[in-house]
UniProtKB/TrEMBL annotation:
Low complexity bias (residue ranges): 240-249
First and last residue of the signal peptide: none
Alphabetical list of InterPro entries matching this protein: DedA-like (IPR032818), VTT_dom (IPR032816)
Organism placement in taxonomy: Bacteria, Bacillati, Actinomycetota, Actinomycetes, Micromonosporales
The name this protein goes by in its record: VTT domain-containing protein
């Protein structure tokens, strides 16, 4: 950081402002660059009077808002294939694991991931392209992006500017030990926002691995209807298998022919040729 600060001293103020806006803007498009280091160095440089803190903060906020908006447009146009290509190009910063974590942040927290992502290195790089690839409404994205960019840029700049001015005053009386304490105090003031952002990230894996609700077991089908049917079937009267009485007469004992059960018919014997007809009661 001190090498960067020494290099910034050799530049004119307008070049410092443009450098701050450019580096932070390109970083916000999805390219891993040390945007925060440039902002911190410029803010500490403002404490020495070389540059103005309000212009440093304005340049940082403008770069963050414009860069995120360009990254949003690129992500919306390129979609997930673009994120995959960025992951192959920058596997350390934008690998599959980092992309999955950032995507879980958006799925869990929505546009709040854009606001708090400005204070986290990973989400600060991916907020714009990922929001575009996930088709987050641009108006909502712009509000969260602008709010996060302004708070981050002006808060960081004026915090470090104040710490730097105090450190310069303390160095006259307290030596380098006071500078160390001043820097620690300044860093502690940004701890809460970073801690909040990391808590949001840590909550995502727990939510993604939350077990799905187990389906209620289907009640076992009752066998009572089948058993009732079996009992009813067994209780039915057994029909006699004996056949009905046959109309055929039962043969008489001792080999006699069966007796006819029909009415007796008067059958006249056939006349014998040459014989006189037999007298009957009718001829008398």
């Amino acid at each position: 950081m001190f090498d960067v600060q020494h290099w910034l001293v050799s530049l004119p103020p307008i070049a410092v402002y443009l450098l701050v806006a450019g580096v932070i803007g390109v970083e916000s498009m999805g390219v891993p660059l040390p945007g925060e280091i440039v902002l911190v160095s410029s803010a500490l440089l403002a404490a020495t009077g070389v540059v103005e803190p309000e212009w440093v903060a304005t340049a940082a906020a403008a770069g963050a808002i414009v860069g995120d908006s360009i990254g949003y447009a690129v992500g919306r146009r390129g979609g997930r294939p673009l994120l995959a290509r960025l992951g192959r190009r920058f596997p350390r910063h934008l690998g599959p694991a980092q992309l999955a974590r950032a995507e879980q942040s958006f799925a869990r927290h929505g546009v709040w991931a854009v606001f708090f992502g400005r204070f986290v290195a990973l989400l600060r790089i991916l907020a714009g392209p990922l929001a575009g690839a996930l088709h987050v409404p641009y108006r909502r994205f712009l509000v969260a992006n602008a709010a996060g960019g302004l708070v981050w840029a002006f808060g960081t700049t004026y915090l470090l500017f104040t710490v730097g001015r105090a450190a310069e005053h303390w160095l006259k009386d307290i030596s380098w030990a006071g500078l160390v304490l001043a820097v620690l105090a300044g860093l502690a003031s940004t701890w809460w926002l970073r801690r909040r952002a990391h808590r949001l990230e840590a909550a995502e894996p727990a939510q993604s691995t939350e077990p799905a609700g187990s389906a209620e077991p289907e009640p076992a089908q009752s066998t009572e209807p089948a058993e009732s049917a079996e009992r009813a079937k067994s209780a039915e009267p057994v029909q006699s298998a004996e056949p009905a009485e046959s109309a055929t007469p039962t043969p008489a004992p001792d080999g006699d022919p069966p007796l006819s059960v029909g009415p007796a018919l008067d059958v006249e014997p056939a006349p014998v040729p040459g014989a006189a007809p037999a007298r009957t009661g009718r001829n008398r």
